[in-house]
Amino acid sequence: MNKSGNKSLIIIIIILFITNVVMVALWWKSSDHDQPKPRKSRMAEYLKTDLGFSQQQMVLFDSIKAEHRTEAKRIFDGFRGAKDSIYKEIGANEFADSSLNAAAGYAAEKQLFLEKMMLEHLKEIRSLCTPGQLQKFDTGFYKIMMRGGKTSDK
User: Fold this and answer.
1) Do 128 and 61 touch, CB atoms closer than 8 A?
2) pTM for the whole thing?
């Protein structure tokens, strides 16, 4: 290749390199790496926007939510710890049907408990509603649970 061909390739490589550096810089600047973004609660948004929860109701909701999260975390942590011993027992019993059934039964029991806990949590949230908000809560809360936060019927 001649000198002008080499010169053209070098210029193209430099332009591509600069473009990549600019793209990385723009990406880095556009995303906030210094602070985590707060997780938006779909239920909180629904209660505030759709039901018109007052500031006092939202404070009570936040308290119930924090208590629920603490309890759920404790249960999940315990479940994770128990799963280790359950899996070891399954292996030690060479995947016998009785071990598999016991493990599945334990998992089902924990799942049932968690489902009941979630429903009790919803009941607690419902108790914060005013009489005028109850009808709307009863006919709309499931939309948050089933549609990932989309409350429209479309």
Assistant:
1) yes
2) 0.64
CB-based contact 118:141 (threshold 8 Å): no
Question: pLDDT tens digits, residue range 5-46?
Answer: 677 778 888 888 788 777 877 777 766 555 554 556 888 999
Residues 59, 69: contact at Cβ < 8 Å?
no
- 3-state helix, strand and coil shares in percent for the chain, rounded to the nearest 5: 80, 0, 20
Measured between alpha carbons, how far is 132 from 150 in angstroms, rounded to an integer? 22
CA distance 122 to 141: 9
Inform me whether the pLDDT recorded for 77 exceeds 90: no
- How many whole angstroms separate alpha carbon 49 and alpha carbon 43? 10
- The residue behind tokens 């948050």 is 144
CA distance 135 to 92: 54
